[in-house]
Amino acid sequence: MSLALAAALSQSIVPHVDLPPPQEDPCAGFEEAEGLSGIGQRAFTLDDQVRMADIGRANPVGAARAIGVAPDGEHIAFVVKRANPEANVYCQRLMIAAMDGSGAAVEVDRGGEFIRDDFRLRDFPAIMAGWDRPNPPRWSSDGSRIGYLKRLNGSTQVWLVDPDRTVPPRQATALPDNVDSFAWTNDGTALIVATRPGIRIQSEAIAREAAEGFLFDERFSPQFADRPIPTGQLETHYSYVSLADGEVWVASSEEARLLSGEAPEGLPARARAYAENDSGIAAWLEPSEPTRLISPTRLVVGWPDGNQIVCEQKACEGIRELWWSSDGTALLALQATGWANSQTAILRWELGEAQPRQILLTEDALVGCTVAGGELLCGREGFGQPRRLVAIDVVTGADRLIHDPNPRLEERTFGTVERLRFRNAFGAESYADLVLPPDHQAGQRHPLIVVQYTSVGFLRGGTGDEVPIHPLANRGFAVLSFDRPDFSAAALGATTEEELTRANRADWIDRRRVQSSLETAISLAIDTGSVDRARMGISGFSDGGSTVQWALINSDLFQVASMGSCCEDMYSYPLAAGPRFTDFVRAMGYRHFEPGTEEFWKPMSLILNVDDVDVPILIQTGDSEYEAGLDVFETYSYRGRPIELYVLEDETHIKWQPAHRQAIYRRSVEWFEFWLMKRMDCDPAKVGQYARWLAMDGAPARKDLRCSDGRSSLP
């Protein structure tokens, strides 16, 4: 039996039809819209949000560099990505802009499939992610070509583009495996390319097992796949690809270092953010308490002769990234600082000074920065300001705009934001952002929606980006964008992942700390006089989903809930994840299918607390995770509790498809409006949805409902 036939048969158990992909250019509609202007101010809507253009990964936390600087320093290249929910694809355009900000950015290539990143999960080395792989364009040394990753027909390869557009774009590599990253050789005649053939080799071996059946072992995670998953370490292979004739051979160790970014030998274990100037002076971050799993870091600068200086002062705490100034005389650093690390700073350390000095302090997020001349190029975004490309002077900290990928959003109105800072009952610094409708008037009290569990940069939709914050504010809600507190001191002192989880799970202390911060934030929001305490809902995804569970069981704050993943409970949770995960969590103190299980789970289990939880729950989760909550869904459905589950096809933990993002946004808004505002979308296509919701226990009476435009919902 061929591998192709085996794959086809595996899909033949139930009837299944795939709709043909759209044939139109996904960018065409956006080009027409960009030509419109002067419409005037109007509310920022969920449809605006789902179509926002992004440069780099949408989530700013830890996002990699997305900008390529030309060798002459006069131009930059970047990929602009914009979701097209109608076609369920992304418009992707390779753009060039002048560094001085003059003129409009110019498109030099477009197209390609969304390039999903992957990540390691325990012993599974490559689980597909819902965010995009880092893809900064890379200029050749003479500036005559730009290379970037492009995915066509399921294969990610390097493509070359002429900045002057005199030569059509061309595919430069045709390797059997997806290209993860690449670099130019110094002379510009070849590329050094990184791939992981082990993914393909293991997958082919697993496919050959299918003829005799798969042994159910630690390679299985039923929620991800109905077959074994590649496991273990995957070696990265570095190849030399000649641009003259396409010949490919194994790269030398020196050539591989152009791409691997390996730090020299002799650095401490877990040293990171290594940066070296042209004089061989290096800087890096290293753990100040090496035995701890999560350790504070110290900044080290080392000279070629072996001399070092170390900055362990408070001024150097929280540093995340390092660069050298273009002339090599100053070290630049990006730092998380301030209350609960809620602010961003740029530091400058002249080599003759005792410690770095702060040149910029902001509550904005600075994303994917890189040095160009006397400036640091970054994506910059704030509470109500979507990401733009800016250049920040590395002496003064002043910035200037280079490119705004969403210029028409200047005509939109966003919610007003107040940052709330406080300590929880355990003394931990915490914060949340209260977002009110832009037309809020003193004395008005709005229904409140909690969105979590990070509140950084442009307030989009919380972790997972599922509940649109500013669109909700524009529809009359107050939104509390909640940032969860850090772990306890005991957990932060752990030396292994097992110790960390055991410390967090001791008497469910981590959940109690988060709940304490959440309750304090809500109390402060209510104290502003702008929140109706009798109409409050909560949403959550991933760790935030666990926060929703705990809050519904251990408080009576909320009248409605929405979850992007479900649930951390006794039965389906370990079974769906597979035997390796079950062993993993048991080793960390969880109990499953053994004496004492119910006693352990009582404070956290929605199943065991079904008699006390009568809050309507909406679950919207991917087909790779919904099995984990089936025990909760069945328990609540059988008991007549108001609950609804949507399963989104071909989705991982964080959802990636534009049509699904739009559907999740809309359904979340409609769910909260129905329960907290007695408001409904009177589109005839929504009749079935509201019929189900009206039949739920505790639903508002039909006569009390109003259409979104204010009309009665009754005929």
TrEMBL record:
Example GO biological process: proteolysis
SUPFAM superfamilies (UniProt xref): alpha/beta-Hydrolases (SSF53474), DPP6 N-terminal domain-like (SSF82171)
NCBIfam families in UniProt: lasso_peptidase
Pfam families given in the database record: Peptidase_S9
Residue stretches in coiled coil: none
MF terms (GO), sorted A to Z: serine-type peptidase activity
Superkingdom: Bacteria
Descriptive protein name: Uncharacterized protein
Organism (species): Croceicoccus naphthovorans
